[in-house]
Design a protein that fits this description.
Structural class: alpha+beta
Strand content: 25-35%
Order of helices and strands: HHEHHHHEEHEEEEHHEHHHEEHHEEH
Number of helices: 15
Radius of gyration: 20 Å
Low-confidence stretches: 1-22
Shape: globular
C-alpha cells in the first residue's frame, strides 16, 4: 500500500482522542466528482477534529503526509496559519497503468486562502507560473513541468501534487475525463462514511491487497492469501468514537466463502503478530490481541478497540 494508506490507519488511532462533540466534516460533492474515475484510493481527514486533540502537535509530526508537509511549508511562507486556517485535507491516488506509468497523487485542502496575495507574491519574486484549462498552476518544491505545484479551485480550496496529477484532476473537473460516477464500487464505499467519520479511506481491490500486506503482514504470509486477495473487491477504513475508540476496517470479497477464508487468515495472523509485538511493542500487541474479526456474506470486518492510555503509548512510538 502507498504511504497514504498507512497514514490513514495511524490517523484512525490518533483521532480517537478528539472530543465526542466534534461533528465530522465531509468531502464536498464538487470536489468528490472532480476526482478521476481511475482513482483507486480516496481519503479524507477532518483537520478540525485533529486540532481538537490534546496531542495535536505529536499527530502533526507523525501522521501528516510528506507531500502535504511540503505544501504546508510553502503556504506558511505566504502567511497562511496552518494550525487555524485549514479545515480539511483530502487525497486521491490513481494507480499506474500502461498509459500512465507513474502513480498519481492529488491532495486537496480547504481553508482560509488569499489567491490574490499568492499571485502578487509570485509576480514580485518573478517566479514562473503556467496555465491549464484556465487555471493558474503555481510551482513549489522544485517546480518545473514535472515538479510539485498547486492551484486554487476557489478562494477557499487548493489542489496540489505533481503537475500531471493536477492536469488529470482539472480535465476531470471540466468533464474532459470520466469522474468517480463511473467508479461505482469506490463511490459506494465513500458514501458510507463521508460526513460520518472524521477520517476515512476508501480503497479499490488493488490498494486493498497492498493495504492488507502492509498493515497485516502475518496474514499475508499464508499460501491461501494470494488466492483470496485476487478476489478482493475493495475496502474501507474509518473511525467511530464512543466511550472507547473503535477502529473499523471492512473488506469486500467476491464470495462469502472468500470472506470466511480471509477471516480465518486474519484471526490467525493477528494472533501471531500480537505475540510477536508483545516483546518490543506491548502497546501495539495489546491492541492486536483485542481485535475482533467477523464476516457476513461477502463482507469481512475487523475492529480494534483501544483506550486513551494505550493510544498515547502508540503515538509516542518511533
Amino acid at each position: 500500500m502507498s504511504a497514504r494508506g498507512v497514514l490513514a490507519l495511524a490517523l484512525l488511532v490518533g483521532l480517537g482522542l478528539a472530543p465526542l462533540s466534534v461533528r465530522a466534516g465531509s468531502l464536498r460533492a464538487d470536489v468528490l466528482y472532480s476526482l478521476p474515475a481511475e482513482s483507486g484510493e480516496v481519503g479524507f481527514l477532518d483537520l478540525q477534529a485533529v486540532r481538537s486533540s490534546p496531542h495535536y502537535e505529536l499527530l502533526k509530526q507523525r501522521l501528516i503526509p510528506a507531500r502535504f508537509a511540503q505544501f504546508e511549508r510553502f503556504v506558511v511562507s505566504l502567511g497562511v496559519n496552518v494550525d487555524y486556517d485549514l479545515d480539511w485535507l483530502a487525497w486521491s491516488l490513481v494507480p499506474s497503468s500502461p498509459e500512465q506509468p507513474m502513480e498519481l497523487f492529488l491532495g486537496i485542502v480547504q481553508g482560509q486562502f488569499s489567491p490574490e496575495r499568492v499571485q502578487k507574491f509570485f509576480e514580485s519574486q518573478k517566479m514562473p507560473t503556467s496555465e491549464y484549462n484556465g487555471v493558474t498552476l503555481f510551482p513549489f518544491g522544485g517546480g518545473g513541468g514535472t515538479g510539485l505545484c498547486f492551484a486554487f479551485l476557489d478562494s477557499s480550496t487548493a489542489a496540489f501534487g505533481f503537475q500531471r496529477a493536477l492536469e488529470v484532476f482539472l480535465d476531470t473537473r471540466i468533464g474532459a475525463r470520466d469522474n468517480l460516477l463511473r467508479n461505482e464500487g469506490l463511490l459506494s464505499r465513500i458514501s458510507e462514511v463521508n460526513g460520518r467519520a472524521p477520517v476515512w479511506v476508501a480503497l479499490d481491490e488493488h490498494y486493498t491487497r497492498l493495504a492488507v500486506r502492509q498493515l497485516l503482514p502475518e496474514a499475508a504470509l499464508f499460501p491461501e492469501f494470494a488466492e483470496v486477495a485476487d478476489r478482493f473487491l475493495g475496502s474501507l477504513l474509518q473511525i467511530e468514537v464512543a466511550r472507547d475508540v473503535n477502529l473499523n476496517f471492512q473488506a469486500w470479497c467476491r464470495t462469502p466463502d472468500d470472506a470466511q477464508v480471509f477471516s480465518i487468515l486474519l484471526q490467525t495472523g493477528l494472533a501471531a503478530q500480537s505475540w510477536r509485538e508483545q516483546q518490543g511493542n506491548p502497546a501495539l500487541g495489546q491492541v492486536l490481541a483485542g481485535a475482533v474479526v467477523r464476516s457476513s456474506g461477502e463482507r469481512l470486518e475487523l475492529e480494534l478497540v483501544a483506550d486513551g492510555e494505550t493510544l498515547q503509548a502508540l503515538l509516542k512510538l518511533r
